[in-house]
Amino acid sequence: MKDPSTGKVSLGGDKGLLDTYDFDIKENDGTVLRVLRNWGTHAGKAIAGEGVKFNIYKYGDGKVKTK
């Protein structure tokens, strides 16, 4: 939390990088979401070929309720 008095929050550290999506197959963790994600990655490779990895950045800050 950046400012507890206003509830201002920020993800991604100072440069705002949240994640890098690299079209890899993740280890099965037993969840339906993981199975669907991996299936989508396989389908995408079959249809469109190998993907190009990219960074995902945040856009601005958020605000949460404070007491």
Envelope shape: elongated
Total beta-strand segments: 4
Instruction: Output mean pLDDT.
Output: 89
SSE ordering: EEHEE
Proportion in helices: 25-40%
Major sheet: 2 strands, antiparallel
In whole angstroms, the N-to-C terminal distance is: 14 Å
Give the helix/strand class: alpha+beta
Give the radius of gyration.
Answer: 17 Å
Notes on the structure:
By secondary structure, the protein is of the alpha+beta class. It has one domain. Helix content is 25%, strand content 19%. It has one helix spanning 32-48, and strands at residues 8-9, 17-21, 54-57, 62-63. The strands form 2 sheets. A two-stranded antiparallel sheet has the order 1-4. It has a two-stranded antiparallel sheet with strand order 2-3. The protein is elongated, with a radius of gyration of 17 Å.
